[in-house]
Amino acid sequence: MKRYYIIILLLLQCGFSMAQTQGEGETIEIEHSTSGPYQASEKVVMKPGFVGLPGFSAKINPTLVFAPYEATYLDPNSGGLSGTPGTGGVVGNIKANFNVTNSGAVTYSIPIESPAGINGMQPNIGLVYNSQSGNGIAGWGFNLSGLSMISRVPMEFFYNGENSSIDWSQYSPFALDGSVSFPIFRAIQN
Asked: Which DSSP letter does residue 5 get?
């Protein structure tokens, strides 16, 4: 009896997987027997040989957005699309970097292009997401990269020989981007 249940479940699973097939695209051309939903942003063409089976539906949805095809470039002169790389920039391409750290954090960084300044000086900033960070300056998990920060940090036994909180005095150590700095010369006498 158990064997019959397993066979029935497998047949139902195959039926559900067939029922979930769906076609999407800018233009869809169908020339065979088919069932299931189809959506297109421009048109659905039913060619000779098409037979709509039970469950077939075709809809035009102009709000569908699709990734550009490979070798799709924007021509700055005409504003149209081109297949020639020398005409302009790649449509829909972001030079982002995706990574998973050893601790399991997902990081995603998007560089922000900025124009060069005087003598070729150019900022190197970007938007960075880290799944293990808290509320950042650009939203939950999002921060800006390329900006340095000097901050006060608590004294730690490893660096200072004692543990204490930040006391906001001249003796509280500084850190540059989280790295503890050490005084080379102290002008104030103890």
From this structure: H
SS3 (DSSP) at 106: strand
Environment class of 5 (CB within 10 Å of its CB; exposed 0-12, middle 13-18, buried 19+): exposed
How far apart CA 84 and CA 81 sit, in angstroms, is 9
Cα–Cα nearest to 83, from 157, 63, 75, 140 = 75
Sign (positive/negative) of CA torsion 145, 148, 153, 157? positive
Report the alpha-carbon distance of residue 11 to residue 5 in Å, rounded. 10
- Helices marked H in the chain: 2-19, 157-160
79-97 pLDDT, tens digit each: 677 766 666 666 556 778 8
Q: Rounded distance, CA 163 to CA 133, Å?
A: 25
The partner residues of 150 in beta bridges, in order of sequence, read 176
What whole-number distance in Å separates Cα of residue 2 and Cα of residue 9?
11
Cα torsion 73, 76, 82, 88: sign:
negative
CA–chain centroid gap for 41, Å, is: 24
Q: For the whole model, what pTM was predicted?
A: 0.40
